[in-house]
Amino acid sequence: MAKTLLEKAIACHKFIHARHYSEGQIRSHVILPPAGLPDWSTGNHESDALATGIHLQAMSFWWATTKDPQARAEAKETARGLRKLQRVTGTKACFARGFKRGDGPSWDEQMHFFPREWHQAGKYRWVGDPSTDSLVGIMGGYQAYFELVADQKEKAEVAKDVDIIMGRIVDANMRILDVDGRMTLWGNMCPVILEENLNALEALSHLRAAHHMTKKRRYLNEYYRLIEKHDYHKKAALANAQASPPPPHYDWNLATSPLYALLHYEKDAALLRYYYRALEVQWKGAYKAGVHEPFVNWAYKVFRPKAPVRKETLEWMRTVDVGEQVASEPAPPAGRTSLRQQRKYDVVAGGERKAIEAVSEGVVRNFLRAYWMGRYYGFIPAEA
């Protein structure tokens, strides 16, 4: 018998906590034992900030829907995980892509794009060069926690964190700076060198949210400067609208998350026309691209209540793999699910070049957000 969506949500939550959750952080990609360490810290941590922010959104919607004390406790812990991304670097306002416990370099740090960006900080290893994607996760997570979970003391803590991060970005003319003081590889929201309309949308959203949470006028001033002098509102309306090359599949979510916040905070009718235009682009474009993850559908329905719940959205929720086999055996065979792949890594370990065969495992970071956001807004019933 097929599981209900609630049962899938419970299975997904157990899966995440079994291997992908540590100190409030979601590890988006791990290497399973025996190649990986038994604490599940071995892996690629470059998207942990984004995954952690999405999880904080999910836990915030869970709490707002059910008032389950477990949801509030986990939301608080995940918010602390976002804060640790900032504190682990040892440099004020500089935040990490992800972190793990470790006392020196390990072979998995050679994976993917950032082998030279790993740093030691006491008992932690952390990977730098954060991107605008990382910032979308952090700001989206904080925004949901601030609005749905936090008490006054916790709101003040979030506002302080946001002020530290966004203050440095504003000082750097809308660039994300790394520990060396240079702009990160994908940290460009600067009007002088802007390359993507998506980054204009992200910049406006983060500034509007920063003003809402901190009450500091400097963020609103920067927001209007980018609009009045650099037409960021017009660029935001065209986020992901390009036909060639088409946006990568993950950009639909990366545009929708800041839009969701921006449409909550902006009240000016003239500006809202541009932001609603951007919402239409995401709604139609994601569907045309075959991206049916529910967040785009849900965000659109929040602001366009007469929009349908697309059948493809519910089908995605019913069929997506959430790693349900995780509790039964420590290292499932490669190919068991779409989350796991047999990989061979060519690395230098112990001073010698060698090939390491391993099972890599990802995490469905969007399912819990989809489920609890859908429940919160009543788009999916409790019995579904």
What does this entry look like structurally?
The chain has helices at 5-19, 48-66, 69-87, 132-148, 152-171, 197-214, 217-230, 232-237, 251-265, 269-288, 294-303, 311-319, 367-377, and strands at residues 21-22, 25-26, 29-31, 98-101, 118-121, 124-127, 175-177, 183-188, 340-349, 352-362. The protein has 384 residues and is an alpha+beta fold. It has a single domain, classed as Glycosyltransferase (Alpha/alpha barrel).
Task: Walk me through the topology.
Layout: H1 5-19, E1 21-22, E2 25-26, E3 29-31, H2 48-66, H3 69-87, E4 98-101, E5 118-121, E6 124-127, H4 132-148, H5 152-171, E7 175-177, E8 183-188, H6 197-214, H7 217-230, H8 232-237, H9 251-265, H10 269-288, H11 294-303, H12 311-319, E9 340-349, E10 352-362, H13 367-377
Antiparallel strand pairs: 1-2, 3-10, 4-6, 5-6, 7-8, 9-10
Summarize the structure.
By secondary structure, the chain is of the alpha+beta class. It is built from 13 helices and ten strands. It has a single domain (5-318, 363-377), classed as Glycosyltransferase (Alpha/alpha barrel), CATH 1.50.10.
Notable features of this structure?
384 residues, Glycosyltransferase, three-stranded antiparallel β-sheet
Largest sheet: spatial strand order: 3-10-9
Please identify the structural class as seen in this structure: alpha+beta
Provide the CATH architecture: Alpha/alpha barrel
Overall pLDDT score: 93
Helix content: 40-55%
Low-confidence stretches: 327-337
- The number of distinct β-strands equals 10
The main pleated sheet reads as: 3 strands, antiparallel
Cα end-to-end separation: 14 Å
What's the CATH first level?
Mainly Alpha
List the domain count as a whole number: 1
Q: Tally the helices: what do you get?
A: 13
Q: Tell me the β content.
A: 5-15%
Shape: globular
